[in-house]
Specification:
mainly alpha, 6 helices, about 75% helix, about 0% strand
């Protein structure tokens, strides 16, 4: 099996997308899950509903909505354009946004449940020390 240059390019883009998406999900999803598990904010159900959208909507509908919203005439696309940014649709950044949005419930919901059910949490622990103690069982 010999890989062509196009095959290697596709493989590289896929690995790069997976790496960047995983990093973004860890950096954004973990604190978000911790906040959702500890927050008493009365409208947190709205955030949870938005996070759960990829589980409810078919992938084609979700992709269409994302494309419309980050496209040049969508609300996010217009905001990025007004701020002087490059268009997002059909770019690597757009791929990362779509991948992170689609994968967010698979990161946030299990971590939120874990943070909610951890018996060793005390209010005096900071997020970082709680995360460290959860990982090390210490």
């Amino acid at each position: 099996m010999i890989l062509t240059e196009q095959d290697l390019t596709a493989l590289f883009v896929t690995l790069k997308l997976a790496s960047v998406s995983t990093l973004v999900l860890l950096v954004v999803g973990t604190p978000l899950a911790w906040w959702l598990s500890k927050s008493q904010w009365r409208f947190k159900y709205l955030i949870e509903a938005i996070i759960a959208l990829p589980l409810i909507l078919p992938p084609t509908v979700l992709g269409f909505y994302l494309l419309v919203s980050i496209g040049p005439n969508g609300p996010i696309g217009r905001l990025v354009d007004a701020l002087g940014g490059a268009p997002l649709a059909f770019t690597f950044t757009g791929l990362v946004i779509g991948s992170v949005f689609y994968s967010m419930p698979f990161v946030v919901q299990p971590l939120q449940n874990a943070f909610s059910s951890s018996g060793g949490y005390t209010p005096s622990l900071t997020y970082g020390s709680f995360f460290y103690h959860s990982l090390t069982n210490g």
